[in-house]
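tool=predict chain=A
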Amino acid sequence: MKKILVCTLLAVMLAAVPAFAKKSYVNGIDPNYPPFAYVDEKTGQPAGFDVESMDWIAKTMGVEITHKPMAWDGIIPALLGKQIDMVCSGMSITPERAKMVTFSDPYWTVSRVFVIHGDSTLATGDILKQKIQLGVQRGTSEANAIKQEQQEKNYPFELRFYDSAPLAIADLLNGRIQAALMDELPADDAISKGRNVKKAGTHGKPDQFGVAIRKEDKELQALVNEGYRKLMADPFWKELQKKYLSK
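tool=predict ok
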């Protein structure tokens, strides 16, 4: 009888433990993709909309999530090689990526924009059809899309690739390129920080962001989806948007 009672109590205790208890995961982030993910210059710690979102989800779901900055063009190989467990860092859901990884439910939508110097008069049509230098971050959905479009339509611009959107902005200000293509919020972030740049217009269809996860990690995918459902129903979701995305 004593053994039966002990076993019953143990079963009840185990049933009360969350399915994801005592698990830890590593989130790979782009170290220079404000406002979604970046390394804060003052603290040296990961920060941004995606970082704080995932921290809230980790606390709510009873798991530990740490953030590992790494080069964006190698982040999916790092995920597949199990150096990290997920990528929550403003990653667009694309058919090409979906062949290699699975994604969480979309959590944000963002447009792609051309960015030009504040004194420039270039329009979208000029950017596509003139022989100018166009900057883009390597390994991004916009880089793949504009490269394919250039090949299909024989556009004369010269593509220059950068490790981050802010580095493309820096070369735009220095006159090394005449325009850059990036997601709208990093462009807004540069403008809000006083960079002498402006948006020249949108390009292509908006992207949906999702968290990339290895195809076999169904439990983690369920955790992330449930975490975002809880976050989006909490007032903190609006607070995050006001803090990072309303500049």
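The longest helix spans residues 2-16. The longest strand covers residues 24-29.
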